[in-house]
């Protein structure tokens, strides 16, 4: 293939998900095409594994959460095969930092397999139980408040991403084992994070204490003078809320708190959604990186579609959600790879057509799974 053709292909791809992001699209969805694109994403990701620390780390945890949701929506055995294979080869283990919420995210997939697959004693949930018991009930520096760093590591879940990693696992474990104490303890630690990082005025979460405004001139600000709110960080939170509410008992005493938080954040995300459908990496300073980003947008789209499907969000918002999905779909390469994913980070940074991560694929699958459920 000559350089001219390669250049044209690159221009076409860039147009599809960058220049074309300036075009508002709300056309109807093709569910057959969505299912095909989701399988393409799965197959590409399975053939191109990538991890940050280990196969049981948070990146794979987020990816396989997407695979879970895809299977739940479609019942396609391709997804269950991927889930069972990774769990088996992981020997059903978590990662080893029992104080760190990231290292149990992978257990969401283990729990789902155990609850869904008919083969008894295939899944070993003992490593998950040991992790959760240590995570909740053993002492560590963060719970003790002895870490006085700028990050605010004085609570167990001191960064907003943690609200996707551990709480849905604890909630699902409580449901699966019929042990509500895990849900109550999840709520206790969730409230610590909410009280430390949630901005009630903006209805968004700071990633960690570095980005919480105190009224000081030293407060972190975007170039336009606004607060720093990271798209994927808030995507972690709102997607985590949808996962939690999906499995939380309808009569749970603290459910109204989670429903209100979900509705407040959902309303905010809809208010600030760019015209083309894709949220920018910096939510309140979209001009800082004036292109859409798929991992944050995927999580937002999943959560918003879930809200419509479950009666927490008015159906009048369906066009905005479809617009978001159509924009996300344009960021998928012909081979199935999902591009325009900001790499591992903790604050707004750029993405590109060629930047991809497994958690971006997970967000893509999560979004597609709920779009398929729209009426």
Tell me briefly what this model is.
The protein has helices at 3-17, 31-47, 58-74, 77-89, 107-116, 126-137, 141-144, 162-165, 167-177, 181-197, 231-247, 255-271, 294-309, 318-329, 358-371; strands spanning 198-199, 204-205. The chain has 375 residues and is an all-alpha fold.
Could you please describe the fold and organization of this structure?
The protein is mainly alpha-helical and 375 residues long. Helices cover 52% and strands 1% of the residues. The protein has 15 helices and two strands. The protein has a two-stranded antiparallel ribbon. The longest helix has 17 residues, at 31-47. The termini are far apart.
Q: What is the arithmetic mean of pLDDT?
A: 94
Integer-rounded radius of gyration: 20 Å
Helix/strand order: HHHHHHHHHHEEHHHHH
Low-confidence stretches: 1-15, 19-25
Q: Strand order across the biggest sheet?
A: 1-2
SS summary, helix count = 15
Helix content: 40-55%
In what range is the share of β-strand residues?
under 5%
Class derived from helix and strand content:
mainly alpha
Question: What is the approximate shape?
Answer: globular
Please summarize the sheet with the most strands: 2 strands, antiparallel
Secondary structure tally: strands = 2
Distance between the termini: 43 Å
């Amino acid at each position: 293939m000559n350089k001219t053709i390669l250049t044209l292909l690159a221009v076409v791809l860039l147009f599809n998900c960058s220049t074309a992001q300036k075009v508002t699209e709300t056309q109807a969805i093709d569910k057959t095409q969505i299912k095909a694109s989701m399988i393409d994403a799965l197959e590409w990701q399975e053939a191109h594994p990538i991890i940050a620390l280990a196969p049981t780390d948070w990146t794979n945890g987020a990816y396989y959460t997407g695979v879970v949701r895809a299977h739940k929506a479609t019942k396609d055995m391709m997804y269950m095969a991927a889930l069972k294979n990774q769990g088996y080869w992981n020997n059903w283990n978590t990662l080893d930092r029992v104080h760190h919420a990231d290292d149990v995210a992978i257990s969401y997939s283990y729990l789902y397999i155990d609850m869904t697959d008919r083969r008894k004693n295939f899944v070993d949930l003992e490593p998950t139980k040991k992790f959760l018991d240590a995570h909740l009930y053993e002492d560590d520096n963060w719970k003790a408040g002895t870490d006085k760093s700028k990050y605010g590591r004085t609570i167990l879940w001191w960064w907003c991403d943690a609200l996707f990693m551990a709480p849905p696992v604890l909630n699902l474990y409580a449901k699966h084992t019929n042990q509500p104490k895990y849900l109550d303890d999840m709520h206790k630690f969730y409230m610590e994070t909410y009280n430390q990082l949630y901005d009630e005025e903006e209805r968004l979460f700071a990633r960690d204490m570095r980005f919480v405004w105190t009224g000081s001139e030293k407060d972190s600000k975007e170039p336009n003078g606004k607060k720093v709110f990271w798209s994927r960080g808030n995507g972690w939170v709102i997607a985590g809320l949808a996962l939690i509410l999906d499995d939380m008992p309808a009569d749970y005493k603290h459910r109204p708190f989670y429903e209100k938080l979900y509705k407040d954040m959902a309303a905010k995300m809809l208010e600030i959604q760019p015209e083309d459908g894709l949220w920018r990496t910096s939510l309140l300073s979209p001009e800082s990186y004036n292109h859409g980003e798929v991992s944050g947008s995927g999580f937002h789209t999943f959560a918003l579609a879930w809200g419509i499907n479950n009666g927490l969000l008015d159906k009048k918002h369906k066009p905005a959600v479809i617009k978001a999905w159509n924009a996300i779909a344009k960021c998928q390469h012909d081979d199935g790879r999902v591009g325009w994913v900001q790499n591992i980070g903790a604050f707004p940074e750029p993405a590109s057509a060629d930047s991809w991560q497994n958690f971006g694929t997970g967000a893509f699958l999560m979004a597609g799974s709920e779009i398929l459920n729209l009426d």
